[in-house]
Request: fold
Amino acid sequence: MNLHDALMDKARAGRLSHFYILEATGSEAPADGTLQEFIHHFIRDYYQKIEGHKQSINHLMDHPDVFVLGNLTTTEDPEDKFFSVSESESLARFFEFKAVQSKRKFAVITEAHRINALVANKWLKLLEEPFGECTIFLLNPRRQKLLDTLHSRALHLRLMMNHQESNLTEWMEFLGHSKQLSLSQFIEKYSKAERSLTFWVSELIRWESLQTDQLESKDALKDWLKNFQEMEIFHQPTATKWSLFYSYLHEHVLPRASH
Reply:
């Protein structure tokens, strides 16, 4: 039984833990996008198959009973900062209120490496005495050694990574389809597909890391990621973010990928 199905079985039996730490195995590369994709699919399936919601979740931050703390894209920034005290307090405040649409609330902390002792101590009461039905997923894509205050209070999950070659094949197929679609067709097709925008942005970063062409392409990606992260922070419409992605692909990726 895979990890997704095992968690769904626990959910059906009413035995979900309130705090999980999720890491990936089978790859030396950071697994930010893969872990986030997994959690997105699990939370979506939980709400649809366990609680019977009819509406799908295109983006975790769009759901009122889901809280996301951290970046939704891999930045490869060596100077990642720790979460601030105010950010840590916002997580606790999220659980002080009853769920809006659901029985269970979820929180996803995407970057374990940004947690220091001060922030972890702010969460001790939350991790020991959760408010009602809630589950927190802490993602540890860099597999760093975690603070004892976090480690001792969590159940640890391991997600097997897909082989990189299969991911690359899927990415190249995605580029082939994208080249043939107009902007409206692209948004219509992929905003409703299984793979989220977060997944494809992570695949873009992975593909760029394998390229050996001019450094200008790396600078363009860095600038684009900054713009994309600003759109995430200010909760821009999903269609707007897919449009930005489409433009980047056609300007900076497809001309090189076809050679």
User: Anything to note?
Assistant: The CA atoms of residues 112 and 140 lie 5 Å apart. The mean pLDDT is 84.
